[in-house]
User: Fold these one by one.
Assistant:
Number 1:
Amino acid sequence: MLVPNLLSAAVRPERGIPADAKYSIVNGIAVIPVVGDLTQYASDETTGYDWIKVNFLKALRDPKASAVVLSLNSYGGEVAGCFDLVDLIYESRSVKPLLAICSETAYSAAYAIASACEQVMVPRTGGVGSVGVITGHVDISGSLAQQGIAVTLIYSGARKSDGTETAPLTQTARAQFQRDVDAIGELFVATVARNRGLSQKAVRDTQAATFMGPAGVDIGFADAVMCPDDAFMAFAAQLQEADSRAPNPPAKGKAKALPTGAVVDTLHAERVSTTAATSSNAAAQAVQPTDAQAVAKSWERAMQRASTGFHDRGAV
């Protein structure tokens, strides 16, 4: 994350979710796309944390959704709004089952979001990671001088003009920006460590590297290597299996209270252990062929709807 890199913005087009889009329901599972540039507020060209939050909360309350899938394909985005959203998702683990499916990549801010889910699935050619922060300063004073343009800033407060592009970056300003970046970087490390059950040292030692497919599982950033379709089908089968084993299944559509803090209750812990005990192979077998075909078609339609109305834009 988190401030645009001019080179990558020029050569790597990405797409965002239209602000008026809505999550899809596939086989009783809410599917929320998290794609393209991620920004605090949604626009025609970016996916906003505000949009993700609104749809996530709606999905938690939706009686037709027994679980939530975040379908991610993003190189990251802004700091502003990211970690509040991540905390909300993490604290909601006790409300409904949450799964992150990388389709294909979840880097930087997108990975922060993915890590908040109970499990993260990544395809063999996809990737996770980039737990780090980046910003930059562009000095155009030389170019302006060549054009005979002089800019005079009038301000109060000796530090008010720190970072202006019309003058070289001072060492004092650079040191302050570095402290800010380091502080946010430590927040990022601590957040991923909490979400994934890793030590902060292990996360920090990745030095913001990215990890493709199996390497993401090896480092502890993902739980399994599966293509998005298979990951969704296995998740649906796990939910079906868990429901069939429950001695007193809850009334359809009745969800536990929304989170008010970061405490994960015992019901959540029991459900996670039950889900984890069901392998993806056994889960896949639990779906009848006709059901599997219907679910696959619904998932495909949801992905097609999610891609409608996207706009090309540079990634951060």
Number 2:
Amino acid sequence: MTSLTRFAARYTSSSAIAERIVRRTIMVAATDPNLLLSNDVKQDLLSILHEVALQEVPPNPFIPALQEQRLST
């Protein structure tokens, strides 16, 4: 299991959705390499993954912190 897959699994219990999040993250990074210009590429990838996960995973009203992030974006 890659570190991206482990991180994606924090957003969902479905391995299929986690894999889709990882694939989309890689596609976004490959399509727009300007998103990976900082000194910490791993952190850049995790930031992209976070944004993709917020789009992929349905809102869970029982996780208020995640709900607040959705409302602010």
Number 3:
Amino acid sequence: MIGILGILAAVSTVSSDNFSFTSPGIYVAACLVGIGAFWIRHNNRAVQRLGRHLRLAEERIHQLANRAYGSQQPLLSWELTRQAQREQLRGVKRQAGLLSGWTLNS
């Protein structure tokens, strides 16, 4: 989706004979890029909301495994590990994650 919007933005920008701020192609391209950024951000946020549910399921599985087998080792830890890595980001990487929707909490 974002690739198609990028191609459409590029084509609409260079399709006019004169390249200036008065030509509508630049504004159409800016709108297309904005729509693409909006789409990516909301898709990423939806993935993060699913991640919250996965973390809850992982915690529940750990509790059940601990009760059933006495195991202190986590059986599933992928989502918990990824979220911990996201929370450790600082600086520009953290700001990019917040802007793009890969980190829900600020």
Number 4:
Amino acid sequence: MSGGDEDAERALPREDAERALPRKDASREEAEASGEGAEASRTAVADPRAAVPDPRRAAVDPRRAAVDPRENGRTGRFWSARRVPAAVLALVLLAAAGLLLYDVASVRAHRPAMAWRRQLARELAVRHLDDPWVLAGAASAMLLGVWLIVLAVTPGLRRVLPMRTVAAGVRAGLDRPAAALVLRDRAMEVAGVQSVRMRVGRRKATAHAVCHFRALDEVRADLDSALGDGLRQLGLARPLGLTVHVRRPKRG
């Protein structure tokens, strides 16, 4: 055989080997792909929570909570800091305690007591319990104590109406004059209304409207509808009652 035939015979096994290599790689890739698919299927079967939605996440929807006030409940009123009464009481007590301490220290230093303390001790020793001045002082002290107790147990801030809570830890309030202004603008949009005087309380909103044309019953019905929608859109925690008074303008 010639040299060219020997080279051809040597080249044939090399070509077969090269053809066999891609097949081996392809079979390896198919095996790896099938292994990954099996592992993914095992993971999907082993963790069924991935296909089940979390009901707690699905239940959290602030927009829905804002629409339905019954889900949020009612919020309490805002509490006032009572800075002015607390400051006045603190200053009075501080001045009285300082004056009394100074007088006691003067007496301990062998100095005469102040005239006001000597006069007070003399009056307390002479006057009886049924004396008008003693009764007046006791009544004043009782009224002052009752006033301080009322300030301590009541929330205050009567001008602020609490609104519904749409997020945890966030509270909002609306001033009553601002609510009255919004409702007044809604009432002025009703046909036939010339002027409106609006008053918003803690439990009820009252409208006094003057109608210069249209029937009074029709205007009253439209005002009830418009102001009722306005009260619902204010987003208050406690619904307010509504009273509407309609009259004709005064002549002359």
